Amino acid sequence: DRAAALLDACEQQEKPEWQLLRGRLWLETGEYAKARDILLAARDRYPRETDPMLETCFRELGDYKQAYEYACKQR
């Protein structure tokens, strides 16, 4: 909760670094739709880090086709 509060207080929330960290926190708290949206925004800069998390988000949201696609991107 403290880390989320600190991140939410940051001014530069459009930066991929912020998006990656915030997406990771949302993923850890089970807010998969929020995590998916913000991780997709960070993916261009951090595909290696975001792809496994996006796979999890899509799987948990029941979108198995997208989950499979992100699993394949990791190979």
Note down, in words, how this protein is organized.
The protein is an all-alpha fold. It is built from 5 helices and no strands. It has helices at residues 2-8, 16-28, 32-42, 47-60, 64-73. α1 (2-8) packs antiparallel against α2 (16-28), α3 (32-42) packs antiparallel against α4 (47-60) and α4 runs antiparallel to α5 (64-73). The radius of gyration is 12 Å and the shape is globular. The model has no long low-confidence stretch (mean pLDDT 93).
Unreliable stretches covering 5 or more consecutive residues: none
The secondary structure category is mainly alpha
Approximate shape:
globular
Largest sheet: none
- SSE run: HHHHH
Q: N- to C-terminal separation?
A: 33 Å
| DSSP summary: helix tally | 5
Strand content: under 5%
Using only CA atoms, what is the Rg? 12 Å
Residue-averaged pLDDT: 93
Oligomer: single chain
Q: What helical percentage do the residues reach?
A: over 70%
**How many strands in all?**
0
